[in-house]
Write a structure and sequence with these properties.
The protein is an alpha+beta fold. It is 41% helix and 19% strand. A 5-stranded mixed β-sheet has the order 5-6-1-7-8. Strands 9, 10, 11, 12 and 13 form a 5-stranded antiparallel β-sheet that branches. It is globular, with a radius of gyration of 24 Å. It binds a DNA duplex (18 and 18 nucleotides) through α3, α9 and β9.
DNA sequence: TCTGGGGTCCTAGGACCC
DNA sequence: TCTGGGGTCCTAGGACCC
């Protein structure tokens, strides 16, 4: 049996942990740049605050109902996430936990669940809450896709389920499929949902009854086949062992306000490159390809604001590198190349790919001393920036004025990861 | 006026090779 | 001049996830 453990309104729950007077009160957390609502509590949902909707559209409702608003505080959420995952590992064994996202983990229950899945699932839910203060929902079923379905049902009707749903018999599974809209299934997004609806396939049960051959033809090839198999209880999406290294590392941001000057664009690109290079060194990789892109301000013709047209170009490094200074140089050259005088831009990004293990440590002996200096410099910068304040030490090309910096008007303290912001009890 | 920031996998098609 | 039937590798783009 598989389980999925999913934190309820995770970012909001993290904020509430340090402001307990907000329990039972509506809370929302905004995306970077305070643009979208990316987490909301049940109370906010009941007021009609949309998920993943733009903040400005919900602003009236939010102000009229005194909804508490926070900018996203990823230092805090990341730390609390680690505590939740650690709890799960202690309960079912490290090797049986697959961290799927910051607020979700799959568990392989194996023999733990043979007799009493309900009891085990409830035990997990209660223990995580007791140890970390974070409420979670648990779904249990034979496959990951069905476990996700169970979890969806657990969250949908918390008063009845107490945040736990177990689908351990064929009858329960069939009933769950029949009462669930096909668009709620894991692996069915907007495009497929619309397509399926058009064909008269409305419930998960309707999809269950289609053949693998049909899914291969109409639902993205092998991806669709896996979905059908999973619904039938056949494990087709396997558990990943340990968190493997990223194959691509990106740092991209909207600007706080549109940016027109090349200088500001270059500062932003240098800053994002530094951040991406830090992530690169953290997983001990080096990059061989660097991609820089900008998104002009003009609204997209398609009306889809998300995947608006971006203008970018890439550069291939002669030697893969993890040193910020090696990456900033080509990044800035690309920025100059793609920038057009007279336009203004709302976003820029840096993507590192072609990642390989960073073997420059071993190569040290054979390198000129200047290269070794580069490594020491990086280590020192990373350590200082990690233990003190972000960007105490940075490259001059990152700038000091930061005209492009994103908006964050409602930021809470990093209670658990910065000494000077520790929660105080008087 | 104001709409995030990451990631993954898969497929099709082109370039190139023998 | 005629010209088959494989392979592989890479990239762009589409779909999905949180």
């Amino acid at each position: 049996m598989k389980a999925i453990v999913d934190c309820n309104s995770f970012y909001c729950s993290c904020e509430r942990l340090f402001e307990p007077q907000l329990d039972q009160k509506p809370v929302v957390v905004l995306s970077n740049n305070d643009g979208c609502i990316i987490s909301r509590t049940d109370e906010a949902k009941a007021l009609g605050v949309g998920m993943a909707g733009p903040y400005f559209k919900a602003k009236n409702v939010i102000e009229q109902n005194s909804v508490s608003v926070f900018s996203s505080n990823y230092n805090l959420y990341g730390d609390l996430s680690r505590r939740v995952m650690q709890t799960l590992k202690e309960m079912v064994g490290e090797n049986n936990v697959e961290v799927y996202s910051v607020d979700e983990a799959f568990l392989s229950l194996g023999e733990f669940a043979n007799s009493n899945s309900d009891q085990l699932a409830m035990d997990i839910r209660k223990t995580v809450e007791r140890w970390t203060g974070i409420k979670v929902s648990v779904g249990v079923a034979p496959t990951k896709t069905l476990a996700k379905l169970a979890n969806y049902l657990a969250k949908k009707d918390k008063a009845i389920t107490d945040c736990v749903t177990v689908l351990d018999t064929q009858q329960k599974i069939i009933h769950a499929l029949k009462i669930t809209d096909v668009k709620e299934l894991w692996g069915v997004g907007r495009q497929y949902a619309d397509k399926l609806k058009g064909l008269g396939i409305c419930t998960a049960w309707d999809l269950y009854n289609l053949s693998e051959e049909w899914a291969h033809r109409c639902l993205g090839g092998v991806v669709g086949v896996r979905l059908i198999k999973e619904l039938h209880g056949e494990e087709s999406i396997i558990m990943e062992k340990e968190l493997v290294n990223k194959k691509m590392i990106a740092t991209t941001r909207m600007f706080g306000a549109p940016v027109a000057s090349l200088n500001d664009i270059k500062e932003a690109v240098a800053t994002y490159t530094s951040r991406a290079a830090e992530k690169l060194r953290r997983q001990q990789s080096a990059a061989s390809v660097i991609n820089v892109f900008v998104v002009p301000k003009e609204p997209s013709q398609t009306g889809r604001f998300r995947h608006g047209p971006s203008i970018g170009s890439h550069s291939i490094l002669s030697t893969p590198s993890a040193l910020t200074q090696d990456l900033i140089k080509p990044a800035l050259q690309i920025a100059e190349r793609i920038y057009e005088q007279g336009r203004s831009y709302k976003k820029a990004g840096v993507i590192l790919s072609g990642l390989v293990p960073d073997n420059s440590i071993q190569a040290n002996l054979f390198e000129p001393p200047s290269k070794n200096m580069g490594r020491y410099l990086m280590e020192m910068m990373d350590n200082i920036n990690f233990s003190m304040r972000n960007d105490v030490v940075k490259f001059a090309s990152s700038g000091t004025k930061r005209n492009w910096k994103m908006r964050q008007e409602f930021h809470s303290p990093r209670y658990t990861t910065r000494w000077e912001e520790l929660y105080e009890v008087h």
